[in-house]
Amino acid sequence: MKKFSLLLLCVLVTGCFQVTEKINHKTDQSGDYSLIIDFSDSWVKTRAAIMLGEVDGEKIPSEAEMKEKLAQFRKDASKIKGASKISTSYDFSNYIFKLNFSYNSIETLNAVLNTIDKETTLVHFKTSKDKFERIASYPIPETLKEKKDKKEDLQKAKITAVYSFEKEVKTVQNANSKLSKSKKTVFLKQNVWSVLNDNSLMNNSISFTP
Fold first, then answer.
1. Tens digit of pLDDT for each residue in 140-156?
2. Which residues contact residue 57 at a Cβ distance below 8 angstroms, ignoring those fewer than 6 apart?
């Protein structure tokens, strides 16, 4: 499968699920990244879809295929200079999947993320001395926009970004963001249907207090 199995499973199965992206970004441009895909609130529907093997003409990855994809991610990421502490986990009782890694630069972060969807090479993040920028792009089937019967489920499903920094945040460009009391963590949550139709809703530009 060309698309990353877990993200494909999210949007095809629909139901209630959560995608959470977390970054702890340091002043020296290194950091830690994690992606959590959680189907625990709709595990019955998820299990049924996997057993069926197909939804709306799209092949659903089996448990074995998902394990293989996670293993391939670890293998590909380990080849990228500057990437470390690469790990993945899966829980097929609740259908919760995680991947984690550390990076030594923003270029390494982008390179590792590009191993998830090999169809395109994108700049997912940019940084400068006093700015951190997210340019969102999710490898999900464009044809889902035409499936209005999935709209309600996809509006319940959420994508959340949690970005933490060593410096205090001065400004946040995305008006839907929330800032922690410490002013060092930015939260952004959108429903999957909206992001499917406009990835830029997860874009953000964050500046810091000198």
1. 666 666 666 677 877 88
2. none
Q: Compute CA distances 92 → 52, 64, 67, 150, whole Å.
A: 16, 11, 10, 24
Identify whether the C-beta of residue 117 lies closer than 8 Å to the C-beta of residue 128: no
Residues in the chain: 210
91 bridge partner residues? 96
Of 162, 73, 59, 176, the residue nearest 115 (C-alpha): 73
Residue 60 CB-half CA count within 13 A: 20
The two counts, helices (H) then strands (E), for the chain are 6, 13
Q: pTM, whole model, 2 decimals?
A: 0.87
User: Which of 17, 94, 1, 96 minimizes the C-alpha distance to 54?
Assistant: 1
